[in-house]
Amino acid sequence: DAVSFTPKFFFTQLRENFDRKASPLREEASRKNKDWHTVVTLASILEREIKTPDDFPTVSGILWKRLNAGWPLGADATLLYDDPDGSLSAQDLRRDSPYNTRIRPGLPPTPISNPGKDALVSAIQPTENPNLYFLTGDDGKMYYSKNFAEHTKLKNKHIK
To answer: How far apart are CA 143 and CA 136, in angstroms?
Structure first.
């Protein structure tokens, strides 16, 4: 029998493959009392927001702190997911969207990408650290800060 290759069939195949490969991680998240949807959504943000997997655990720690405190996550990648032209303007940063984690606390309603294993592991096992802010400089490096004043200085220094 020939398989009818429809968008629904394709999505189902992708989802089943993800579920099969991520099953051990889902079990680990459950053992750590972490909601799977939250883990996958947070991992999807790491995947799109952070350039190098080495930074995933540290940023995950920051995002979990912000999430648990009820703060906005401040991840531009979530806004880009919901942006029709794929670029961010000052107006976009203020746009009322469920994907605007600059102004809305909590997670966006859905994952914004298909996260890889490194991002999923980091979402389950974040690195505890004293920082509350992160940014990627124009040089591609990550910069971390403990407070908004430090964050602003780093932003002015590393982003033109």
So the answer is: 6
Per-residue pLDDT, averaged over 26-43, amounts to: 97
Environment class of 29 (CB within 10 Å of its CB; exposed 0-12, middle 13-18, buried 19+): buried
pTM summary value:
0.89
Distance CA 120, CA 103 (A): 25
How far apart CA 120 and CA 131 sit, in angstroms, is 21
2 has a pLDDT exceeding 70: no
- In this predicted structure, the answer to whether residue 119 has a pLDDT above a threshold of 70 is yes
- For residues 51 and 56, what is the distance between their CA atoms, to the nearest angstrom? 9
Going through the chain in order, the beta strands assigned E by DSSP cover: 133-136, 142-145
d(CA 109, CA 41): 8
Q: Which two tokens stand for residue 13?
A: 């195949």
